[in-house]
Specification:
Elements (H helix, E strand, L loop, with lengths): L1 E3 L9 E7 L6 E2 L4 E6 L4 E5 L4 E6 L6 E3 L3 E6 L3 H8 L9 H5 L2 E2 L5 E2 L1 H10 L17 H8 L3 E2 L2 E2 L1 E4 L5 E4 L2 H7 L12 H16 L2 E9 L1 H14 L7 H15 L5 E3 L4 E3 L5 E3 L1 E3 L2 E3 L2 E2 L7 H16 L5 H4 L4 E5 L18 E14 L5 E14 L5 H16 L2 H4 L1
Parallel strand pairs: 18-22, 22-23
Antiparallel strand pairs: 1-8, 2-4, 2-7, 3-6, 4-5, 6-8, 9-10, 11-12, 13-14, 15-24, 16-17, 18-21, 19-20, 23-24
Helix pairs in contact: 3-4, 8-9, 8-11
Length: 411
């Protein structure tokens, strides 16, 4: 029985085996942990689903392989005897280099034999490619994709779809480095998280028809109520502006249920509950844990849950169920002094709300007088396939109305 690198979420493309709990020849019971993996999203143990004997380990600890790769072989039933006879204790582990048949070029580029053969047949320069395989190996699909691209200045270029549907070539890694040959620089290899973020956001920006809606929100009342609540808590609780924003978004989705949806290619999924994802920055990237049923929770309960999830995100211990799903994300850069920005929709969600800093600005009163008040800018990015202009405007207006009437958030 083949043991595969499991799929731990739609955005997870590869996993790194950090520890093997069993050795070749060990008896394994159903439910026993076989190995621990570290993805760009989380760390977790992978158990065996059936009893048997671990006959072969194909991926050593420390190696990163794509989801679906065979990492080990478990002998079960009648094959147990054959496995025991075939077991060679002097060579129990097959390293990734042996599995992938990779060789290292003079330039330091790693490439599999199949990719090398395909490159020779198609005339593709391997030095101009960036590998998408384990540990940066160039694999056959990289070469095949390059063979279909136009050539730029004698090298292979990456083709990126433009708005008009044509192909716009971009420079390869080798070509970019050549441009800066006379400039000192340090090259930071991409880890699994950064690769996934780059791939997912590129796909999202290219495939989702984005449009943007902006609104300014008066924050005077909310800032005052937040201050009162925090003072009454006497240090036992500290509510953030973001806690109120998340509650407002959750309630707004209930007021505008058509916008509480996700794109499913051949249909639109509409949800009853408000599951709101929150962007949490970590070293090298970000996570988006999801607050489930956020419309039913108090501000204080939301605050505690957000803090707990953010702490787990920092430790990269979130489970897939804690960051998958949701219909909208809240991304707040106000604490960094950013006045406003436009975020990229995280598919299959249909919208993302970008929150800027609350700052003192001149505000005109109904009688024409001018005063200074606390104002915050919101930018709602929408997937036009799910949310059109008027619907997005209704959702943003609902969020604004709730933030400007904070007692409604405390009911």
């Amino acid at each position: 029985m083949d043991i595969l690198m499991p799929q731990l979420g739609e955005t997870v493309a590869e996993g790194k085996i950090t520890t093997w709990y069993k050795s070749v020849g060990d008896t394994v019971a159903a439910g026993d942990a076989l190995f621990e993996i570290d993805t760009d999203k989380s760390s977790m143990e992978v158990p065996s689903t059936v009893p048997g004997v671990l006959a072969e380990i194909r991926v050593a600890a420390g190696a990163t392989v794509p989801v679906g790769s065979i990492v080990a072989v478990l002998s079960t039933g009648a094959s147990l005897v054959a496995a025991a006879r075939a077991f060679d204790p002097a060579n129990p582990v097959h390293t990734p280099e042996r599995n992938y048949g990779a060789a290292t070029l003079a330039s330091g580029i790693k490439v599999t034999p199949v990719a090398r053969r395909v490159a020779a047949e198609s005339g593709v320069d391997l030095n101009a490619l960036t590998g998408s395989g384990p540990d940066g190996h160039i694999v056959a699909r990289d070469v095949q994709a390059a063979a279909r691209r136009p050539r730029v200045n004698g090298g292979t270029a990456t083709a990126t779809p433009s708005a008009a549907g044509s192909s716009v070539p971009t420079l390869s890694s080798a070509q970019v480095k050549a441009l800066y040959a006379g400039v000192p620089f340090e090259e930071a290899p991409l880890d699994g998280m950064r690769r996934t973020i780059a791939r997912r956001l590129t796909e999202a920006k290219q495939s989702i028809p984005h449009f943007y809606l902006r609104a300014d929100v008066s924050m005077d009342k909310l800032v005052a109520i937040r201050g009162e609540l925090n003072a009454q808590a006497e240090g036992k609780m500290k509510l953030s502006i973001n806690d109120f924003i998340i509650k407002a978004v959750a309630l707004a989705l209930q007021r505008v249920p058509e916008a509480n949806a996700a794109w499913a290619e051949d249909s639109v999924l509409r949800f009853k509950q408000s599951d709101v994802a929150v962007a949490v920055a970590v070293e090298g990237g970000l996570f988006t844990p999801v607050i489930r049923n956020a419309e039913t929770k108090s501000i204080s309960a939301l605050s505690r849950e957000i803090k707990a999830l953010a702490q787990r995100a920092q430790g990269r211990s979130l489970k897939p169920a804690e960051y998958q799903g949701g219909s909208i994300t809240v991304s707040n850069l106000g604490m960094h002094g950013v006045r406003e920005f436009a975020a990229i929709v995280n598919p299959p969600q249909a919208a993302i709300l970008a929150v800027g800093a609350a700052e003192r600005r001149p505000v005109e009163g109904a009688d024409g007088s001018v005063r200074f008040g606390s104002v915050m800018s919101l930018t709602l990015s929408c997937d036009h396939r799910v949310i059109d202009g008027p619907l997005g405007a209704r959702l943003l207006a609902a969020v604004k109305a709730l933030l400007e009437s904070p007692p409604l958030l405390l009911a």
